Amino acid sequence: MDREKSDNSCSRDMPADATPSEIDIRAQLARILSSTEFSVPERIRQFLLCIVSETLAGRSERIKAYSVAVEVFGRDTNLDIQNDPVVRIEAGRLRRALERYYLLSGNADPILIEIPKGGYVPRFHQRENRLKNGEAAPQPEPLRKRSFGRLADALRPHSWLVASLVATAVIGVTSLVRLETPSPPAASATVSAQPEEPSLIVKPFVNLSKSPDVDIYVAGLGEELLSQLARFKELTVFGRETSVAVLPGASAAEIRQQFGNRYVLEGGVRMVEGKLRVTSRVLDGETSAIIWSGTYDADPRANDIADIQLTIASKVATAVAQPYGIIFSAPPRPVQARGAQSLEAYRCSYRFYNYRTVLDQAAHAETRACLEQVTARYPEHATGWAMLSYLYLDEDRFQLNRRPGSPQPAERARDAAERAVRIDPENVRALQALMTVLYFGKEPAEALRVGSRALALNPNDTELLGEFGSRVAQAGDWARGAALIEEAMVRNPGHSGYYVGLLALAAYMQGDDARAADLIRRANLRGFSIYHFVAALIFARIGLETETAQSRAEFLKLRPRFFEDFDGELGKRNFNARDRAIIIRGAIQAGFPVQTRFAAGAE
Hints:
There is one protein chain. This protein has helices at residues 22-34, 42-56, 65-71, 86-103, 127-132, 160-173, 214-229, 240-243, 252-259, 305-321, 343-358, 361-377, 382-397, 409-423, 428-440, 444-457, 462-474, 478-491, 497-509, 513-523, 529-541, 545-558, 566-572, 577-589, 596-602, and strands at residues 111-114, 123-126, 199-202, 206-207, 236-237, 263-272, 275-284, 290-298. By secondary structure, it is of the alpha/beta class. Among the domains are: 10-132, no CATH class; 151-181 and 195-321, Rossmann fold (3-Layer(aba) Sandwich); 335-458, Serine Threonine Protein Phosphatase 5, Tetratricopeptide repeat (Alpha Horseshoe). The strands form two sheets. Strands 3, 4, 5, 6, 7 and 8 form a six-stranded mixed beta sheet that branches. It has a two-stranded antiparallel sheet with strand order 1-2. α19 (497-509) runs antiparallel to α20 and α19 (497-509) packs parallel to α21. The chain is globular, with a radius of gyration of 26 Å. The two termini are 51 Å apart.
Protein backbone atom coordinates (compact mmCIF):
# COMPACT_ATOMS: atom_id res chain seq x y z
CA MET A 1 0.00 0.00 0.00
CA ASP A 2 1.41 3.37 -0.84
CA ARG A 3 0.81 6.26 1.51
CA GLU A 4 -0.01 8.82 -1.20
CA LYS A 5 -2.97 11.01 -0.28
CA SER A 6 -6.06 11.16 -2.42
CA ASP A 7 -9.16 13.31 -2.58
CA ASN A 8 -11.25 10.13 -2.55
CA SER A 9 -12.77 9.09 0.75
CA CYS A 10 -14.71 6.16 2.10
CA SER A 11 -17.29 8.67 3.30
CA ARG A 12 -19.27 8.20 0.10
CA ASP A 13 -20.14 4.70 1.34
CA MET A 14 -21.75 5.97 4.55
CA PRO A 15 -24.83 8.05 5.35
CA ALA A 16 -24.03 11.75 5.20
CA ASP A 17 -25.28 12.50 8.69
CA ALA A 18 -23.15 9.71 10.22
CA THR A 19 -19.84 10.50 8.53
CA PRO A 20 -17.32 12.78 10.20
CA SER A 21 -14.91 14.77 8.07
CA GLU A 22 -11.43 13.53 7.18
CA ILE A 23 -9.92 16.23 9.38
CA ASP A 24 -12.00 15.07 12.35
CA ILE A 25 -11.11 11.42 11.72
CA ARG A 26 -7.39 12.17 11.59
CA ALA A 27 -7.70 14.23 14.77
CA GLN A 28 -9.42 11.28 16.46
CA LEU A 29 -6.72 8.90 15.22
CA ALA A 30 -4.05 11.15 16.71
CA ARG A 31 -6.02 11.30 19.97
CA ILE A 32 -6.11 7.50 20.18
CA LEU A 33 -2.44 6.98 19.28
CA SER A 34 -1.30 9.52 21.88
CA SER A 35 -3.41 8.09 24.69
CA THR A 36 -1.77 6.07 27.46
CA GLU A 37 -4.91 3.89 27.53
CA PHE A 38 -4.17 2.74 23.98
CA SER A 39 -1.25 0.62 25.16
CA VAL A 40 -0.36 -1.72 22.30
CA PRO A 41 2.84 -2.79 20.50
CA GLU A 42 4.14 -0.56 17.73
CA ARG A 43 3.08 -3.05 15.03
CA ILE A 44 -0.58 -2.67 16.06
CA ARG A 45 -0.29 1.11 16.09
CA GLN A 46 1.07 0.91 12.53
CA PHE A 47 -1.77 -1.45 11.63
CA LEU A 48 -4.38 1.10 12.77
CA LEU A 49 -2.57 4.01 11.11
CA CYS A 50 -2.29 2.09 7.84
CA ILE A 51 -5.92 0.97 7.51
CA VAL A 52 -7.32 4.38 8.49
CA SER A 53 -5.03 6.18 6.03
CA GLU A 54 -5.84 3.78 3.20
CA THR A 55 -9.57 4.10 3.82
CA LEU A 56 -9.44 7.89 3.90
CA ALA A 57 -7.46 7.79 0.64
CA GLY A 58 -10.24 5.79 -1.03
CA ARG A 59 -8.26 2.56 -1.21
CA SER A 60 -10.24 0.45 1.24
CA GLU A 61 -10.57 -2.35 -1.33
CA ARG A 62 -6.82 -2.95 -0.95
CA ILE A 63 -7.10 -3.65 2.78
CA LYS A 64 -6.83 -7.44 2.65
CA ALA A 65 -5.15 -9.93 4.95
CA TYR A 66 -2.36 -10.58 2.44
CA SER A 67 -1.44 -6.94 1.83
CA VAL A 68 -1.54 -6.11 5.54
CA ALA A 69 0.60 -9.14 6.39
CA VAL A 70 3.23 -8.16 3.83
CA GLU A 71 3.29 -4.41 4.17
CA VAL A 72 2.54 -3.89 7.86
CA PHE A 73 3.87 -7.02 9.50
CA GLY A 74 6.76 -7.68 7.10
CA ARG A 75 5.72 -11.15 5.99
CA ASP A 76 7.33 -12.64 2.89
CA THR A 77 5.46 -12.06 -0.37
CA ASN A 78 5.27 -15.85 -0.90
CA LEU A 79 3.36 -16.48 2.32
CA ASP A 80 0.32 -18.75 2.43
CA ILE A 81 -2.18 -16.43 4.11
CA GLN A 82 -4.48 -19.36 4.98
CA ASN A 83 -1.78 -20.80 7.23
CA ASP A 84 -0.49 -17.50 8.64
CA PRO A 85 -3.00 -16.06 11.15
CA VAL A 86 -0.94 -12.97 12.03
CA VAL A 87 -3.43 -10.44 10.63
CA ARG A 88 -6.46 -12.11 12.20
CA ILE A 89 -4.75 -12.32 15.59
CA GLU A 90 -3.46 -8.76 15.55
CA ALA A 91 -6.82 -7.45 14.30
CA GLY A 92 -8.44 -9.04 17.34
CA ARG A 93 -5.95 -7.33 19.62
CA LEU A 94 -6.58 -4.02 17.87
CA ARG A 95 -10.35 -4.35 18.25
CA ARG A 96 -9.98 -5.07 21.97
CA ALA A 97 -7.57 -2.15 22.41
CA LEU A 98 -10.04 0.22 20.74
CA GLU A 99 -12.90 -1.10 22.87
CA ARG A 100 -10.84 -0.57 26.02
CA TYR A 101 -9.85 2.93 24.91
CA TYR A 102 -13.45 4.01 24.26
CA LEU A 103 -14.58 2.43 27.52
CA LEU A 104 -12.00 4.40 29.52
CA SER A 105 -10.39 7.67 28.42
CA GLY A 106 -12.24 7.84 25.09
CA ASN A 107 -15.77 7.50 26.45
CA ALA A 108 -16.58 11.13 25.58
CA ASP A 109 -14.72 11.34 22.26
CA PRO A 110 -16.89 12.65 19.38
CA ILE A 111 -15.60 10.19 16.75
CA LEU A 112 -15.79 6.40 16.91
CA ILE A 113 -13.29 4.34 14.92
CA GLU A 114 -14.34 0.70 14.70
CA ILE A 115 -12.94 -2.41 12.96
CA PRO A 116 -15.94 -4.66 12.18
CA LYS A 117 -15.42 -8.38 12.57
CA GLY A 118 -14.94 -10.28 9.35
CA GLY A 119 -12.76 -7.62 7.74
CA TYR A 120 -10.13 -4.98 8.34
CA VAL A 121 -11.67 -1.84 6.79
CA PRO A 122 -12.44 0.67 9.57
CA ARG A 123 -15.73 2.46 10.00
CA PHE A 124 -16.11 6.00 11.31
CA HIS A 125 -19.08 7.37 13.23
CA GLN A 126 -19.78 10.76 14.69
CA ARG A 127 -21.13 10.15 18.16
CA GLU A 128 -22.72 13.61 18.41
CA ASN A 129 -24.90 12.96 15.35
CA ARG A 130 -26.11 9.69 16.81
CA LEU A 131 -27.19 11.37 20.02
CA LYS A 132 -28.79 14.26 18.13
CA ASN A 133 -30.97 11.82 16.18
CA GLY A 134 -32.26 10.34 19.40
CA GLU A 135 -30.19 7.16 19.34
CA ALA A 136 -28.61 5.77 22.43
CA ALA A 137 -24.89 6.09 22.90
CA PRO A 138 -22.99 2.96 21.88
CA GLN A 139 -22.73 0.40 24.63
CA PRO A 140 -20.39 -2.58 24.97
CA GLU A 141 -21.82 -5.73 23.40
CA PRO A 142 -22.45 -8.85 25.48
CA LEU A 143 -19.57 -11.21 26.17
CA ARG A 144 -21.15 -13.65 23.71
CA LYS A 145 -20.36 -11.16 20.97
CA ARG A 146 -17.10 -9.59 22.04
CA SER A 147 -14.57 -9.24 24.81
CA PHE A 148 -13.26 -6.08 26.40
CA GLY A 149 -9.82 -7.63 26.05
CA ARG A 150 -7.22 -8.06 28.66
CA LEU A 151 -7.28 -5.42 31.37
CA ALA A 152 -3.59 -5.52 32.01
CA ASP A 153 -2.69 -4.54 28.44
CA ALA A 154 -3.32 -0.94 29.38
CA LEU A 155 -1.42 -1.05 32.64
CA ARG A 156 2.22 -0.50 33.41
CA PRO A 157 3.92 -3.45 35.14
CA HIS A 158 3.73 -2.09 38.70
CA SER A 159 0.47 -0.15 38.57
CA TRP A 160 -1.40 -2.71 40.64
CA LEU A 161 -3.69 -0.16 42.22
CA VAL A 162 -4.71 1.16 38.80
CA ALA A 163 -5.30 -2.43 37.68
CA SER A 164 -7.66 -3.04 40.55
CA LEU A 165 -9.56 0.20 39.87
CA VAL A 166 -9.86 -0.55 36.16
CA ALA A 167 -11.11 -4.04 36.87
CA THR A 168 -13.71 -2.64 39.25
CA ALA A 169 -14.79 -0.08 36.66
CA VAL A 170 -15.19 -2.71 33.97
CA ILE A 171 -17.24 -4.90 36.29
CA GLY A 172 -19.45 -1.96 37.21
CA VAL A 173 -20.08 -0.78 33.65
CA THR A 174 -20.49 -4.14 31.94
CA SER A 175 -23.87 -5.85 31.87
CA LEU A 176 -24.01 -9.17 30.07
CA VAL A 177 -27.06 -10.27 28.12
CA ARG A 178 -26.44 -13.88 27.09
CA LEU A 179 -24.76 -14.94 30.32
CA GLU A 180 -27.02 -16.02 33.15
CA THR A 181 -28.22 -13.68 35.89
CA PRO A 182 -27.75 -14.63 39.54
CA SER A 183 -31.39 -15.40 40.31
CA PRO A 184 -33.24 -18.13 38.40
CA PRO A 185 -36.01 -17.02 36.05
CA ALA A 186 -39.59 -17.28 37.18
CA ALA A 187 -41.57 -20.26 35.98
CA SER A 188 -43.55 -19.67 32.81
CA ALA A 189 -46.34 -21.51 31.10
CA THR A 190 -44.83 -20.80 27.72
CA VAL A 191 -42.02 -22.76 26.14
CA SER A 192 -38.65 -21.09 26.61
CA ALA A 193 -36.77 -20.03 23.48
CA GLN A 194 -33.62 -21.70 24.78
CA PRO A 195 -33.25 -24.93 26.76
CA GLU A 196 -31.23 -25.23 29.94
CA GLU A 197 -27.64 -26.22 29.28
CA PRO A 198 -24.77 -27.28 31.55
CA SER A 199 -23.84 -24.13 33.45
CA LEU A 200 -20.62 -22.82 34.92
CA ILE A 201 -19.63 -20.05 37.33
CA VAL A 202 -16.07 -18.75 37.29
CA LYS A 203 -15.04 -17.72 40.80
CA PRO A 204 -12.60 -14.82 40.93
CA PHE A 205 -9.10 -16.26 40.92
CA VAL A 206 -7.09 -15.80 44.12
CA ASN A 207 -3.72 -14.08 44.53
CA LEU A 208 -1.85 -16.82 46.40
CA SER A 209 1.38 -14.83 46.66
CA LYS A 210 -0.20 -11.81 48.34
CA SER A 211 2.02 -9.71 46.06
CA PRO A 212 0.40 -6.58 44.58
CA ASP A 213 2.04 -7.30 41.21
CA VAL A 214 0.09 -10.56 40.91
CA ASP A 215 -3.22 -8.64 41.10
CA ILE A 216 -2.67 -7.63 37.47
CA TYR A 217 -2.57 -11.26 36.33
CA VAL A 218 -5.54 -12.24 38.52
CA ALA A 219 -7.79 -9.50 37.10
CA GLY A 220 -6.76 -10.05 33.49
CA LEU A 221 -6.95 -13.85 33.62
CA GLY A 222 -10.50 -13.79 34.97
CA GLU A 223 -11.55 -11.44 32.16
CA GLU A 224 -9.94 -13.56 29.46
CA LEU A 225 -11.38 -16.80 30.87
CA LEU A 226 -14.95 -15.46 30.68
CA SER A 227 -14.33 -14.37 27.11
CA GLN A 228 -12.86 -17.71 26.01
CA LEU A 229 -15.47 -19.87 27.75
CA ALA A 230 -18.38 -17.89 26.32
CA ARG A 231 -17.38 -18.96 22.80
CA PHE A 232 -18.57 -22.52 23.50
CA LYS A 233 -22.28 -22.36 22.76
CA GLU A 234 -23.21 -25.68 24.39
CA LEU A 235 -22.23 -24.26 27.79
CA THR A 236 -23.95 -21.48 29.75
CA VAL A 237 -21.39 -19.27 31.48
CA PHE A 238 -22.58 -16.99 34.25
CA GLY A 239 -21.39 -13.41 33.89
CA ARG A 240 -19.00 -11.17 35.79
CA GLU A 241 -21.72 -9.75 38.01
CA THR A 242 -22.40 -13.28 39.23
CA SER A 243 -18.72 -14.12 39.66
CA VAL A 244 -18.04 -11.12 41.88
CA ALA A 245 -21.15 -11.89 43.94
CA VAL A 246 -19.69 -15.26 44.99
CA LEU A 247 -18.29 -15.15 48.51
CA PRO A 248 -14.56 -16.04 48.58
CA GLY A 249 -14.99 -18.98 50.95
CA ALA A 250 -18.20 -20.39 49.46
CA SER A 251 -18.19 -24.09 48.63
CA ALA A 252 -19.30 -25.48 45.27
CA ALA A 253 -22.49 -26.80 46.88
CA GLU A 254 -23.26 -23.41 48.46
CA ILE A 255 -22.69 -21.63 45.13
CA ARG A 256 -24.98 -24.09 43.37
CA GLN A 257 -27.68 -23.61 46.00
CA GLN A 258 -27.48 -19.82 45.57
CA PHE A 259 -27.25 -19.56 41.77
CA GLY A 260 -28.46 -22.90 40.39
CA ASN A 261 -25.30 -23.62 38.38
CA ARG A 262 -23.96 -27.14 37.85
CA TYR A 263 -20.18 -26.47 37.79
CA VAL A 264 -17.71 -24.10 39.44
CA LEU A 265 -14.32 -23.12 38.02
CA GLU A 266 -11.85 -21.74 40.54
CA GLY A 267 -8.14 -21.16 40.73
CA GLY A 268 -5.19 -19.25 42.05
CA VAL A 269 -2.13 -17.40 40.80
CA ARG A 270 1.24 -17.26 42.52
CA MET A 271 4.65 -15.82 41.70
CA VAL A 272 7.68 -17.87 42.71
CA GLU A 273 11.20 -16.63 41.94
CA GLY A 274 9.93 -14.42 39.17
CA LYS A 275 7.86 -17.15 37.48
CA LEU A 276 4.10 -17.42 37.35
CA ARG A 277 2.10 -20.52 38.23
CA VAL A 278 -1.65 -20.76 37.64
CA THR A 279 -3.66 -23.60 39.17
CA SER A 280 -7.26 -24.24 38.23
CA ARG A 281 -9.94 -26.82 38.92
CA VAL A 282 -13.60 -27.57 38.17
CA LEU A 283 -15.97 -28.83 40.85
CA ASP A 284 -19.36 -30.48 40.46
CA GLY A 285 -21.82 -28.37 42.43
CA GLU A 286 -24.00 -31.37 43.17
CA THR A 287 -21.33 -33.59 44.71
CA SER A 288 -18.51 -31.05 45.39
CA ALA A 289 -16.19 -33.53 43.67
CA ILE A 290 -13.19 -32.20 41.76
CA ILE A 291 -13.71 -33.40 38.20
CA TRP A 292 -10.70 -31.68 36.61
CA SER A 293 -7.58 -29.77 37.61
CA GLY A 294 -4.71 -28.20 35.70
CA THR A 295 -1.47 -26.34 36.37
CA TYR A 296 0.12 -23.85 33.98
CA ASP A 297 3.50 -22.11 34.22
CA ALA A 298 4.71 -18.96 32.49
CA ASP A 299 7.71 -16.65 32.63
CA PRO A 300 6.70 -12.95 32.63
CA ARG A 301 10.26 -12.04 31.70
CA ALA A 302 9.98 -13.93 28.41
CA ASN A 303 6.31 -13.24 27.54
CA ASP A 304 4.11 -10.16 27.84
CA ILE A 305 1.08 -10.11 30.12
CA ALA A 306 -1.43 -10.29 27.30
CA ASP A 307 0.12 -13.41 25.77
CA ILE A 308 0.31 -15.16 29.14
CA GLN A 309 -3.33 -14.46 29.92
CA LEU A 310 -4.54 -15.50 26.47
CA THR A 311 -2.48 -18.71 26.38
CA ILE A 312 -3.50 -19.92 29.83
CA ALA A 313 -7.15 -18.93 29.45
CA SER A 314 -7.35 -20.71 26.09
CA LYS A 315 -5.91 -23.92 27.55
CA VAL A 316 -8.29 -23.88 30.51
CA ALA A 317 -11.34 -23.07 28.36
CA THR A 318 -10.47 -25.81 25.86
CA ALA A 319 -10.03 -28.43 28.58
CA VAL A 320 -13.24 -27.46 30.36
CA ALA A 321 -15.78 -26.52 27.70
CA GLN A 322 -14.91 -28.33 24.47
CA PRO A 323 -16.85 -31.29 23.11
CA TYR A 324 -15.56 -34.59 24.54
CA GLY A 325 -14.09 -32.51 27.38
CA ILE A 326 -14.73 -32.88 31.08
CA ILE A 327 -18.28 -31.48 31.11
CA PHE A 328 -19.59 -33.43 28.12
CA SER A 329 -17.72 -36.64 28.94
CA ALA A 330 -20.15 -37.64 31.69
CA PRO A 331 -23.92 -38.04 31.22
CA PRO A 332 -26.05 -35.37 32.94
CA ARG A 333 -28.16 -36.17 35.95
CA PRO A 334 -31.58 -34.60 36.59
CA VAL A 335 -30.86 -32.72 39.79
CA GLN A 336 -33.67 -30.15 39.84
CA ALA A 337 -37.33 -30.45 38.97
CA ARG A 338 -37.38 -27.02 37.34
CA GLY A 339 -34.90 -28.22 34.73
CA ALA A 340 -36.42 -31.64 34.07
CA GLN A 341 -37.78 -30.83 30.60
CA SER A 342 -35.01 -28.44 29.65
CA LEU A 343 -32.36 -30.94 30.76
CA GLU A 344 -33.26 -33.07 27.74
CA ALA A 345 -31.24 -30.68 25.55
CA TYR A 346 -28.18 -31.39 27.68
CA ARG A 347 -28.82 -35.12 27.33
CA CYS A 348 -29.08 -34.67 23.57
CA SER A 349 -25.72 -32.92 23.46
CA TYR A 350 -24.18 -35.76 25.42
CA ARG A 351 -25.80 -38.31 23.09
CA PHE A 352 -24.61 -36.39 20.04
CA TYR A 353 -20.96 -36.46 21.08
CA ASN A 354 -21.28 -40.07 22.16
CA TYR A 355 -22.77 -40.90 18.74
CA ARG A 356 -19.82 -39.16 17.05
CA THR A 357 -17.46 -41.57 18.81
CA VAL A 358 -19.23 -44.71 17.55
CA LEU A 359 -21.20 -43.73 14.40
CA ASP A 360 -23.51 -46.74 14.52
CA GLN A 361 -27.17 -47.30 13.65
CA ALA A 362 -28.54 -47.50 17.19
CA ALA A 363 -26.82 -44.35 18.47
CA HIS A 364 -27.83 -42.48 15.31
CA ALA A 365 -31.53 -43.32 15.68
CA GLU A 366 -31.60 -42.47 19.39
CA THR A 367 -29.77 -39.16 18.93
CA ARG A 368 -31.86 -38.08 15.92
CA ALA A 369 -35.09 -38.69 17.82
CA CYS A 370 -33.79 -36.79 20.83
CA LEU A 371 -32.70 -33.76 18.79
CA GLU A 372 -35.97 -33.66 16.84
CA GLN A 373 -37.85 -33.45 20.13
CA VAL A 374 -35.59 -30.70 21.43
CA THR A 375 -35.79 -28.56 18.28
CA ALA A 376 -39.58 -28.96 18.26
CA ARG A 377 -39.78 -27.75 21.83
CA TYR A 378 -37.07 -25.08 21.43
CA PRO A 379 -37.24 -23.92 17.79
CA GLU A 380 -34.67 -21.15 18.43
CA HIS A 381 -32.01 -23.53 19.79
CA ALA A 382 -29.30 -23.07 17.16
CA THR A 383 -26.97 -25.76 18.52
CA GLY A 384 -29.76 -28.33 18.47
CA TRP A 385 -30.47 -27.61 14.78
CA ALA A 386 -26.74 -27.80 13.99
CA MET A 387 -26.42 -31.22 15.62
CA LEU A 388 -29.60 -32.43 13.91
CA SER A 389 -28.12 -31.37 10.58
CA TYR A 390 -25.31 -33.88 11.11
CA LEU A 391 -27.78 -36.66 11.87
CA TYR A 392 -29.70 -35.95 8.66
CA LEU A 393 -26.50 -35.76 6.62
CA ASP A 394 -25.34 -39.11 8.00
CA GLU A 395 -28.53 -40.72 6.70
CA ASP A 396 -27.11 -40.01 3.23
CA ARG A 397 -23.33 -40.19 3.48
CA PHE A 398 -23.21 -43.20 5.86
CA GLN A 399 -26.66 -44.70 5.07
CA LEU A 400 -27.71 -44.69 8.72
CA ASN A 401 -31.46 -45.09 9.31
CA ARG A 402 -32.31 -43.37 6.02
CA ARG A 403 -35.91 -42.21 5.86
CA PRO A 404 -37.72 -42.67 2.56
CA GLY A 405 -39.60 -39.94 0.76
CA SER A 406 -39.11 -36.22 0.35
CA PRO A 407 -37.33 -34.06 1.32
CA GLN A 408 -34.16 -36.06 0.92
CA PRO A 409 -31.66 -36.32 3.80
CA ALA A 410 -29.21 -33.88 2.21
CA GLU A 411 -32.00 -31.30 1.83
CA ARG A 412 -33.09 -31.71 5.44
CA ALA A 413 -29.46 -31.44 6.56
CA ARG A 414 -28.92 -28.21 4.68
CA ASP A 415 -32.20 -26.70 5.88
CA ALA A 416 -31.28 -27.50 9.49
CA ALA A 417 -27.76 -26.08 9.17
CA GLU A 418 -28.94 -22.90 7.49
CA ARG A 419 -31.62 -22.45 10.11
CA ALA A 420 -29.02 -22.80 12.86
CA VAL A 421 -26.86 -20.12 11.26
CA ARG A 422 -29.83 -17.78 10.79
CA ILE A 423 -30.70 -18.12 14.49
CA ASP A 424 -27.12 -17.48 15.63
CA PRO A 425 -24.62 -16.44 12.92
CA GLU A 426 -21.71 -16.76 15.38
CA ASN A 427 -22.60 -20.23 16.66
CA VAL A 428 -19.53 -22.31 15.85
CA ARG A 429 -21.42 -25.62 15.86
CA ALA A 430 -23.91 -24.14 13.38
CA LEU A 431 -21.14 -22.97 11.07
CA GLN A 432 -19.42 -26.35 11.40
CA ALA A 433 -22.61 -28.11 10.35
CA LEU A 434 -23.05 -25.76 7.38
CA MET A 435 -19.43 -26.33 6.36
CA THR A 436 -19.94 -30.09 6.37
CA VAL A 437 -23.26 -29.93 4.51
CA LEU A 438 -21.76 -27.66 1.84
CA TYR A 439 -18.78 -29.95 1.43
CA PHE A 440 -20.90 -33.03 0.83
CA GLY A 441 -23.15 -30.90 -1.38
CA LYS A 442 -20.20 -30.54 -3.76
CA GLU A 443 -19.35 -26.97 -2.73
CA PRO A 444 -15.92 -27.58 -1.18
CA ALA A 445 -14.54 -24.05 -1.69
CA GLU A 446 -17.51 -22.42 0.04
CA ALA A 447 -17.41 -25.09 2.74
CA LEU A 448 -13.78 -24.30 3.59
CA ARG A 449 -14.56 -20.57 3.62
CA VAL A 450 -17.32 -21.13 6.18
CA GLY A 451 -15.00 -23.39 8.18
CA SER A 452 -12.28 -20.73 8.25
CA ARG A 453 -14.82 -18.21 9.54
CA ALA A 454 -15.87 -20.59 12.31
CA LEU A 455 -12.26 -21.17 13.35
CA ALA A 456 -11.71 -17.43 13.56
CA LEU A 457 -14.64 -17.24 16.01
CA ASN A 458 -13.33 -20.01 18.26
CA PRO A 459 -9.87 -21.43 17.51
CA ASN A 460 -10.07 -23.43 20.77
CA ASP A 461 -12.93 -25.67 19.58
CA THR A 462 -11.17 -28.94 18.81
CA GLU A 463 -14.31 -30.61 17.44
CA LEU A 464 -14.46 -27.88 14.81
CA LEU A 465 -10.70 -28.06 14.21
CA GLY A 466 -10.86 -31.80 13.60
CA GLU A 467 -13.84 -31.52 11.24
CA PHE A 468 -12.21 -28.66 9.33
CA GLY A 469 -9.00 -30.69 9.00
CA SER A 470 -11.04 -33.61 7.67
CA ARG A 471 -12.54 -31.46 4.95
CA VAL A 472 -9.14 -29.98 4.02
CA ALA A 473 -7.68 -33.48 3.75
CA GLN A 474 -10.48 -34.92 1.61
CA ALA A 475 -10.30 -31.89 -0.66
CA GLY A 476 -6.79 -33.07 -1.59
CA ASP A 477 -4.41 -31.44 0.91
CA TRP A 478 -3.83 -34.57 2.96
CA ALA A 479 -0.71 -33.33 4.73
CA ARG A 480 -2.25 -30.08 5.97
CA GLY A 481 -5.56 -31.73 6.82
CA ALA A 482 -3.81 -34.45 8.81
CA ALA A 483 -1.79 -31.83 10.68
CA LEU A 484 -4.98 -30.02 11.69
CA ILE A 485 -6.61 -33.27 12.84
CA GLU A 486 -3.52 -34.20 14.84
CA GLU A 487 -3.50 -30.78 16.50
CA ALA A 488 -7.14 -31.29 17.50
CA MET A 489 -6.32 -34.73 18.92
CA VAL A 490 -3.33 -33.47 20.91
CA ARG A 491 -5.40 -30.68 22.43
CA ASN A 492 -8.33 -33.00 23.15
CA PRO A 493 -7.40 -36.54 24.23
CA GLY A 494 -11.11 -37.42 24.35
CA HIS A 495 -11.49 -36.94 20.59
CA SER A 496 -13.77 -39.01 18.38
CA GLY A 497 -12.39 -42.21 16.85
CA TYR A 498 -13.74 -40.90 13.54
CA TYR A 499 -10.74 -38.58 13.33
CA VAL A 500 -8.32 -41.43 14.00
CA GLY A 501 -9.85 -43.25 11.05
CA LEU A 502 -9.45 -40.18 8.85
CA LEU A 503 -5.81 -39.92 9.89
CA ALA A 504 -5.40 -43.54 8.82
CA LEU A 505 -6.87 -42.70 5.41
CA ALA A 506 -4.60 -39.66 5.15
CA ALA A 507 -1.55 -41.82 5.86
CA TYR A 508 -2.72 -44.34 3.24
CA MET A 509 -3.21 -41.62 0.64
CA GLN A 510 0.31 -40.36 1.30
CA GLY A 511 1.85 -43.83 1.05
CA ASP A 512 2.69 -44.28 4.74
CA ASP A 513 1.27 -47.78 5.03
CA ALA A 514 2.79 -48.70 8.41
CA ARG A 515 1.31 -45.61 10.08
CA ALA A 516 -2.00 -46.18 8.29
CA ALA A 517 -2.23 -49.73 9.65
CA ASP A 518 -1.40 -48.62 13.18
CA LEU A 519 -4.01 -45.86 13.11
CA ILE A 520 -6.82 -47.93 11.62
CA ARG A 521 -6.36 -50.53 14.37
CA ARG A 522 -6.61 -47.78 16.97
CA ALA A 523 -9.77 -46.24 15.47
CA ASN A 524 -12.00 -49.10 16.66
CA LEU A 525 -15.24 -48.05 14.93
CA ARG A 526 -16.71 -51.50 14.45
CA GLY A 527 -20.26 -50.26 13.83
CA PHE A 528 -19.18 -47.67 11.23
CA SER A 529 -19.23 -48.97 7.67
CA ILE A 530 -16.59 -46.66 6.14
CA TYR A 531 -14.11 -47.75 8.80
CA HIS A 532 -14.15 -51.25 7.35
CA PHE A 533 -13.74 -49.94 3.79
CA VAL A 534 -10.63 -47.93 4.73
CA ALA A 535 -9.29 -50.86 6.78
CA ALA A 536 -9.64 -53.18 3.77
CA LEU A 537 -7.70 -50.76 1.55
CA ILE A 538 -4.89 -50.49 4.08
CA PHE A 539 -4.63 -54.19 4.91
CA ALA A 540 -4.72 -55.16 1.22
CA ARG A 541 -1.80 -52.90 0.34
CA ILE A 542 0.43 -54.35 3.07
CA GLY A 543 -0.54 -57.92 2.16
CA LEU A 544 -2.63 -58.92 5.20
CA GLU A 545 -5.07 -61.19 3.38
CA THR A 546 -7.07 -62.44 6.39
CA GLU A 547 -7.63 -58.93 7.79
CA THR A 548 -8.51 -57.69 4.30
CA ALA A 549 -11.12 -60.40 3.82
CA GLN A 550 -12.66 -59.73 7.24
CA SER A 551 -12.89 -55.98 6.64
CA ARG A 552 -14.28 -56.49 3.11
CA ALA A 553 -16.98 -58.86 4.35
CA GLU A 554 -17.99 -56.53 7.20
CA PHE A 555 -18.24 -53.53 4.90
CA LEU A 556 -20.34 -55.35 2.29
CA LYS A 557 -22.65 -56.57 5.04
CA LEU A 558 -23.20 -52.97 6.23
CA ARG A 559 -23.25 -51.34 2.77
CA PRO A 560 -24.22 -54.03 0.23
CA ARG A 561 -25.17 -51.50 -2.50
CA PHE A 562 -22.23 -49.13 -2.08
CA PHE A 563 -20.56 -50.12 -5.36
CA GLU A 564 -23.72 -49.72 -7.42
CA ASP A 565 -22.89 -45.99 -7.47
CA PHE A 566 -19.21 -45.99 -6.56
CA ASP A 567 -18.63 -42.95 -8.73
CA GLY A 568 -21.33 -41.00 -6.89
CA GLU A 569 -19.93 -41.99 -3.49
CA LEU A 570 -16.48 -40.72 -4.47
CA GLY A 571 -17.97 -37.61 -6.07
CA LYS A 572 -19.92 -36.48 -3.01
CA ARG A 573 -16.68 -36.61 -1.03
CA ASN A 574 -14.98 -34.32 -3.57
CA PHE A 575 -11.93 -36.51 -4.18
CA ASN A 576 -9.76 -35.13 -6.97
CA ALA A 577 -8.75 -37.25 -9.97
CA ARG A 578 -5.48 -38.44 -8.41
CA ASP A 579 -7.12 -39.48 -5.15
CA ARG A 580 -10.02 -41.15 -6.91
CA ALA A 581 -7.57 -43.27 -8.89
CA ILE A 582 -5.74 -44.30 -5.69
CA ILE A 583 -8.97 -45.31 -3.98
CA ILE A 584 -10.30 -47.21 -7.00
CA ARG A 585 -7.03 -49.15 -7.33
CA GLY A 586 -7.12 -49.87 -3.61
CA ALA A 587 -10.70 -51.12 -3.79
CA ILE A 588 -9.83 -53.46 -6.65
CA GLN A 589 -6.78 -54.72 -4.76
CA ALA A 590 -8.96 -55.34 -1.68
CA GLY A 591 -11.32 -57.51 -3.73
CA PHE A 592 -14.37 -55.26 -3.73
CA PRO A 593 -16.88 -55.67 -6.61
CA VAL A 594 -15.73 -52.60 -8.51
CA GLN A 595 -17.44 -52.28 -11.86
CA THR A 596 -15.36 -52.61 -15.04
CA ARG A 597 -15.43 -48.93 -16.01
CA PHE A 598 -13.86 -47.98 -12.68
CA ALA A 599 -11.25 -50.69 -13.02
CA ALA A 600 -10.36 -49.39 -16.48
CA GLY A 601 -10.12 -45.83 -15.21
CA ALA A 602 -7.74 -46.84 -12.45
CA GLU A 603 -5.22 -48.51 -14.75
